[in-house]
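Marked as duplicate of an earlier ticket. Keeping the data here for the record.
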Amino acid sequence: METMPEIDIDVQSLPSQVSPPDHWQELAACYGLDPEVFFPTTEEEAGLALSCCSVCEVRDMCLAWAVRNGERYGVWGGTTEQQRRRLIRRVA
């Protein structure tokens, strides 16, 4: 089983004032895509979602929303569930 690469994100540098997704989701690269793509059953299946996130202009806002609101499931802001858990543990 291959693990996702470690990500190098400074959680403290994410936007501190985060508006709800309905304020920015129309600008997201994933807007209009099948939401199931962003809720893979395994980390290995997250590639398509992560590639979409890699070109997204609201990626930092999305990740900040997920971290600040405890989103436990799915791909948010270019991170998988496991990657977000590791990020949060590093700053705790």
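See parent ticket for discussion. The mean pLDDT is 87.
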